[in-house]
Amino acid sequence: MNNNMDRLVIRGKKRLSGNVLISGAKNAAVAVIPAAIMADDVCVIDNLPYIEDVKCLYTTINKMGAECVYSDKHTLKIDSSSNVSTTVTFDEVRKMRASYYLLGALLARFKRAEVTMPGGCNFGTRPIDLHLKGFRALGAEVDVQGEVVCVRADKLKGASIYMDTVSVGATINIMLAATMAEGVTTIENAAKEPHIVDVANFLNMMGAKIKGAGTDVIKIVGVDRLHGAEYTIIPDQIEAGTYMIAAAITGGRVKVCNIIPKHMDSLSAKLLEIGIGIEEGDDFITVDATESDFKATSIRTMAYPGFPTDLQPQIAALLSVCGGTSMITENVWEKRYQYIDELKRLGAKITVEGRVAIIEGVKELTGASVEATDLRAGAAMIIAALNARGETVIGEVKYIDRGYEEVESKFSALGADIRRVSV
Ligand code: EPZ
Q1: CA 20 to 30 Å from 136, out of 17, 63, 104, 316?
Q2: In this structure, which residue's CA is closest to atom 18 in ligand 1?
Q3: Of all atoms in ligand 1, which is nearest to the CA of residue 303?
Q4: How many angstroms is it from 284 CA to the middle of ligand 1?
Q5: Omega prior to 118 cis, within 30 of 0
């Protein structure tokens, strides 16, 4: 059982080797689970990652009156046939950003919802104006009362919606709400992440009529009701990328299994540029850095299929020990460099100017005490610690547990000297 004061203690310089099995995608799971309550029926969702964000949604949905049970660690059975509360202001809601999907799901089925404004990682302001603009376009009244977002509609009517900014959350939330609106909705300039396709596939298995997910135009023909379905979540692109980068920084050779290699294209291309061997199979990628000399490169984070912002801290840790000067431009979030100060405590030489980080590669990092400032920053601390000479202690591991299943067991099975210490 993980607790909030846990720390990870890592002794670096061990080459990783062997196979790692990737869990289901967090960012698909946190959208598919809310979508399940749109059916007045039973849904079974499989290949869920056993992580804090999913457990938090499990608690929330039970408090809403649906019957949600773990059939096993990776499978939830959700029965929403009874009446489900449309007021969701429990403490759990503040713990994660994806709580906002409950707005779209409840608005679709019950034509009303009151949900506390979401929490989640702090990368500066994280508005939800595009979500609310989409709900209004479908005919809903939106009212923010303090920190509770209230939406309601006599009926929802299909509309043509152009997204000012490419937004994963807003694309999914509008898709949820439009699924049971009258008539046709088109979402233009839609985000194309793999988890958006996963949510659309799940909704279609429940009887929705959605086409074009994964492209920048999604078309939804509204239906009156959704029935239950059984669904298996896709593998986690970001967890997979985290282990690929960790294998690289240790000069190891690791087979990252149970993935969709296509989802990793932007990272694989960058690792090849750095001089790391990549071998692709149907459902795995083998990263081989045993002979690599790590050349500097530049990274620009973009919406999918560009380089994912959620791998930006992790690749920064690797670039810290690549020969030469590397550059990262963070184009998605206004402030996603809070972890840089922690990396510098490990000996990284990085300067940040606005959205650009300039990284002077060093020969190796040195162990120190650091903190995870958010979920992916925590992953970056593990990656850096695996390279660092000596011992590194990582605090605030609760952030890492939000998105990485059994992180210390998976890393120690690859040969890392890593242990969890409960304070
Ligand atoms: C999702 O966040 C992910 N979270 C994030 O992953 C990820 O970083 C992000 O997509 C981009 O890929 C989940 O899926 C739960 P956005 P989301 O809406 O949907 C602006 C992780 O580590 N924007 O695509 O909140 C926003 O400020 C997390 O797993 C608006 O201006 O991201 C940002 O600059 C961290 N108004 C940009 O769009 C809005 O209404 C992209 O945000 C919504 C977003």
Answers
A1: 63
A2: 167
A3: 12
A4: 27
A5: no
Q: What is the mean pLDDT of the chain?
A: 96
Q: 141 forms bridges with which residues in the sheet?
A: 152
- Classified as helix, coil or strand, 332 is coil
Q: Which of 54, 57, 167 to mutate to test the pocket of ligand 1 (most atoms within 8 A of CB)?
A: 167
Q: Using one digit for the tens of pLDDT, what is the confidence trace for 92-117?
A: 888 888 899 999 999 999 999 999 98
Cα 303 to ligand 1 centre (Å): 10
CB 76 within 8 A of CB 33: yes
Helix (H) or strand (E) run with residue 137 in it: helix 129-137
> How far is residue 43's CA from residue 421's CA, in Å, rounded to a whole number?
37
What local confidence, expressed as pLDDT, does residue 90 receive?
A: 87
Q: Which residues are catalytic?
A: 121
Question: Cα Rg for the chain, rounded, in angstroms?
Answer: 21
Q: What's the pLDDT at 121?
A: 67
Q: Which amino acid residue places its CA nearest to atom 31 of ligand 1?
A: 127
Q: Which residues of the chain have pLDDT under 70?
A: 1-2, 119-125
Q: Ligand 1, from 133, 161, 332, 355: best to mutate by most atoms within 8 Å of Cβ? A: 332
What are the tens digits of pLDDT across the range 271-294? Answer: 999 999 999 999 999 999 998 889
Q: What's the rounded Cα separation, in Å, for the pair 368 and 346?
A: 6
Closest protein CA for atom 30 of ligand 1: 127
pLDDT number for residue 109:
98
Which runs of consecutive H residues, i.e. helices, occur in 187-283?
194-205, 237-249, 265-274
Return the H-helix or E-strand segment holding 163: none
| Residue recorded with tokens 């999604």 | 218
**AA letter at 242:** T
CA of 309 to the centre of ligand 1 (A): 9
354 three-class SS: coil
202 three-state secondary structure? helix
